[in-house]
TrEMBL record:
Keywords: Repeat, Signal. It comes from Acacia crassicarpa. Pfam families: Stress-antifung. Residues 1-25 form the signal peptide. This is Gnk2-homologous domain-containing protein. It comes from the Eukaryota. PROSITE patterns: GNK2. Residues 30-133, 140-247 form the Gnk2-homologous domain. The keyword Signal applies.
Length: 250
């Protein structure tokens, strides 16, 4: 006798898994973002919005770029839009583009109708503006810092090692070329602790502006991260990070 089998799947179960798929496709939240860089706004279906959407759709299509820096503009004044994406220099190209694709998807949603916006993930930063971005040291006095709340075992020796390390990384990063301004390294604080660090500038900055940006960032470490084992200082044109663990890729 022939037997037949049937499979009955409940509608709530289908909806549940569909919901999970949708959620997994959503970009993760930014570590930090800023929608108030200027007072400039645009309206729905305007030329600026059209130019922005076109620019965002094209920005990471160039797979020849393998150094993690994307910059482009689209449109004509006064509705021209400029965008830049910078990946952490130790990240592989695929992960870089994935990070920037998440950023360019999420940022316009969070900063609806704002002409200028900035977002920071661990592996990339992304920004767009109605003003030119290429080679511009943006908002020198702005910074955002946060820390790993654990205290160093010996705050004095850890801080000295951190300062020495960051000054060295600043100099190395600023000496980079127009595609890559990144430096990583470590320094022993004492027998039980090592501090690892990373300093990076947007590679279109001049050596002088990169140095100035990182000097400002280093000066903000005591404000957010004094005696802490880890921390980050984010600026629109550069950023730095330090940890007690080896967090970057060699």
């Amino acid at each position: 006798m022939m037997t037949t089998t049937s499979c009955i799947i409940s509608l709530p179960l289908v909806l549940f898994f569909s919901h999970l798929i949708i959620l997994s496709a959503q970009p993760p939240p930014f570590t930090y973002h800023n929608c108030s860089l200027s007072k400039g706004t645009y309206i729905k279906s305007s030329a600026y919005e059209t130019n922005l959407n076109t620019l965002l759709s094209r920005l990471t299509l160039d797979t020849v770029i393998d150094y993690g820096f994307y910059t482009s503009s689209f449109g004509e004044s006064p509705n021209k839009v400029h965008a830049q994406g910078l990946c952490r220099g130790d990240v592989e190209p695929y992960s870089c583009r994935k990070c920037l694709n998440d950023a360019k998807t999420l940022l316009p949603k969070l900063c609806s109708y704002q002409k200028d916006a900035f977002g920071y993930y661990e592996f990339c930063t992304f920004q767009y503006s109605s003003r030119s971005l290429l080679g511009i040291y943006r908002f020198p006095d702005f910074s955002y810092g946060f820390n790993n709340p654990e205290d160093a075992k010996d705050g004095e020796s850890y801080t000295k090692a951190l300062n020495d390390l960051m000054i060295s990384l600043k100099t190395k990063a600023a000496a980079g070329d127009s595609t890559f301004k990144l430096a990583v390294g470590y320094k022993e604080a004492d027998e039980s602790e090592i501090v690892y660090g990373l300093a990076q500038c947007s590679p279109d900055l001049s050596r002088r502006d990169c140095d100035a940006c990182l000097v400002k960032a280093i000066s903000k470490i005591p404000d957010c991260c004094e005696n802490k084992i880890g921390g980050r200082v984010i600026k629109f044109s550069c950023n730095l990070r330090f940890e007690r663990v080896h967090f970057y890729y060699d």
